[in-house]
Amino acid sequence: MKRNFLIAFVLMSINVFAQNIKFSDSISLVINEQNTIFVKAVFNKIDTLNLNFDTGTTELVLTNDVLKNKLKSKPKLYNTIYNLKIGDGNYKTKVYDAELSGHGTDGRFGWDLFKDKIVELNYDKNLMVVHSELPKNIERKNKFTKLKIEFFKDLFLVESKIKQNGVTNKDLFLFDSGYQRTVMLDNDLLQQEKFPTEKMEVINKVILKGAQGNEIPVITSNLKMLKIGKYKLNNVPVQQLTANKPLRDKNIHILGNEVLKRFNIFLDFQKNVVYMKPNSLFNVKYIDRKKNDI
Predict the structure, then answer these.
(1) Using only C-alpha atoms, what is the Rg of the chain?
(2) Which of 259, 207, 268, 194 lies closest to 233, judged by CA?
(3) What is the pLDDT of residues 54-72, one digit of tens each?
(4) What is the pTM of this model?
(5) Distance CA 235, CA 226 (A)
(6) Residue ranges of the chain with per-residue pLDDT less than 50
């Protein structure tokens, strides 16, 4: 009896120690000309893939072409759990299909793989780092702005402000590293809040493709000011969504990766907080501005 108690105590101590191990897993992060960020990952222990880290989605999504023509694995969609190795970490996820993914990628994985962790996106060092706890002094460094995460269903949002001709609107924006452009503004929400869209200079009108290959008519206009936390971005070419909204039951604006890449970021999914500070890309020209300058 005494011996069994000792064994139980030792096992309990080992388990507590294991739970308190601190780690930081650094993974090479690629960002291409289209603002798609991706890492190498191994699916089901045999398939090496380039996967977009898409904070605007959940679990794992692979393109139909990859599912049919590239994988050695033959995954069952929607219900079966598979292993996805990213860096030194092994994550459990279901698999979904889509027609498209970010340029140069085989699919995308969502933020929810890291629900109990902190994810760092360091564009200066081209690193994605998964931490077991928030690095010390991040909250004390004045250069970081702190944003509270708000959840809508399985997606997360942060508060930001837009300003045009003296009118300022404050709203929650979907934090979407999978959206390759700057900001997608919801037209219904703009009208509801009487934002002066008619005074925004029109830069371009195009048709974009959604993840399922659906066509989305989009107007690109000049926004005088976007404010994220304490940081301001002036004269941002933003997209105005007129139809085929990404969320059917909510009018919502989107922060895309052409804006997000201008910050080094800590996504704290333990306390549900985002930390952001400007990096070396903060003042680079926007894609639509480059086209407009030619």
Answers:
(1) 21
(2) 259
(3) 999 999 999 999 999 999 9
(4) 0.88
(5) 8
(6) 2, 5-7, 9-10, 13-14, 16-18, 294
Between CA 172 and CA 244 the distance in angstroms is 19
Q: Quick check: 99 and 146 in contact, CB under 8 A?
A: no
Answer yes or no: same fold for 24-131 and 146-277: yes
Going by C-alpha positions, the residue among 61, 47, 56, 30 that lies closest to residue 128 is 30
In the DSSP assignment, the letter for residue 290 is: H
167 φ/ψ sector (left φ>0, alpha ψ -120 to 50, else beta): beta
CA distance 70 to 18: 37
What's the rounded Cα separation, in Å, for the pair 85 and 41?
6
Nearest alpha carbon to residue 27 among 159, 120, 136, 102: 120
Domain ranges of the chain: 24-131, 146-277
At the top level of CATH, the class of 24-131 is: mainly beta
Pick the CATH number of 146-277 from 3.30.1160.10, 3.30.300.30, 3.40.190.150, 2.40.70.10: 2.40.70.10
